[in-house]
């Protein structure tokens, strides 16, 4: 019996701890798990193993950079082992859940690797989350501890964490990075930098962390990912994105999100032995100088940010972005109009990324023809991903047809953590994940995302795809960005409301001009917007995607159109 097996026996059987992770975790069926091992997708390595191996191979290479820190691989490996030992002294045991809410800063990396090495599970919260999100998340995860920071961007995260702790019974420990006045009962992270001790550590089949599903309401949907499955997605992503030791990946989006975490993200950069750089603020004013300063080679953005960066570059921003080779755009549909402008404006290769925290990630490849890069959301990263496009009855549509995307594979979950109700809705009887996305697959294998199952306006039985109408509105000379949502109508069921951001606030597009423009493009009359609401900004989800939910709410609260 090797050390790993001993650790499992000690922890799970001899001490007879009931392991809630196993209780709420849906494993792959045994035959599929064996296949993924045989196919060398799952290699039995853990994230801690990878970091330690990279540190042994190249101890002095830079692993992590932010505006205050620059750590080599040897330093990162040591720092995370030291914290893992300190956390164990505090009483955190393998399998415990630990909420991590940190902005993009170097400490994020040492904290998650410390938890990985210990076998405790980080629960990845976004800096934008507040009490209304964190309390249910902590409750659903039965979290033992929370790690956050003091004041960041004028918000007091320590005070928020103390409020969450006071409402969640399981939450016993509050650890703070960089906090001047600690809330009562909280400790400073630096108190747990112990001399590294041998820890039993997890095995690769164990759950590594809990990720959050985007856009859930009610009980949060938690996504349990194992070392085996997530490391495979990280490795394949790093290969597809051609990362190597010279990569400098800039974490621009909130790093707790699956896209900057692993597609290929910070974990991909570490897998490749490259460097992770952090920016706490994604706007060009902060990010452009950092790209120049750190020599960033790749980063990832959501479409609204990609638009901002493109506009800034087109307007002649003077920062030197010549080190940046690849700009990834994903998280929401990048309109073709924007996709066409990104490469020329920023001097980069655009890569579209269509992925989900539940698993499947598709990429356009770096040598794809421009038509593929501009008009598609790429193809699965793994030959072992299985995809099907089905109608509302679950019957596969004809090749090339549009329908609901379902998927299974070596890094797509088989069920949410401890949430049978969500599983019944989101997984087929055979265990395939229903993505909720409406797609078509081109003959060349690339996917085109037509929208979310919910992002259709049903206007008296005529279905209008929000994405399709938005693409038309974006061609209007006075429209900078557009979002279509359905509003209740007593006669039609739904009416079409267009939220638009003007190019020039002094020239606000009117309903008449928008309708006649759309009509002039040869679009069916029933797709004409019924209402136009001009707004200066769109509300965002925590990761920068435009929040259709909040726009619908704004309408319900009386945002009036013209
Ligand atoms: C990523 O992950 P989540 O879990 O926040 O959101 C997943 C959903 C997808 O089901 C899809 O509806 C949408 O976000 N989405 C896209 C998209 N990328 C994601 N819709 C259209 N075009 C795209 N390129 O958002 C995520 C996870 C890993 C990598 C990239 C994104």
Automatic annotation (TrEMBL):
Residues annotated as domain AMP-binding enzyme C-terminal: 468-545
Gene3D superfamilies: 3.30.300.30, 3.40.50.980, Luciferase, Domain 3
Keyword Oxidoreductase: no
Pfam families membership: AMP-binding, AMP-binding_C
Domain AMP-dependent synthetase/ligase, chain residue ranges per copy: 53-417
Domain of life: Bacteria
Keywords: Ligase
Gene Ontology molecular function terms on file: ligase activity, forming carbon-sulfur bonds
Keyword Cell inner membrane (UniProt): no
Entries under PANTHER family matching the protein: LONG-CHAIN-FATTY-ACID--COA LIGASE, SURFACTIN SYNTHASE SUBUNIT 1
Protein name: 2,3-dihydroxybenzoate-AMP ligase
Organism: Nocardia alba
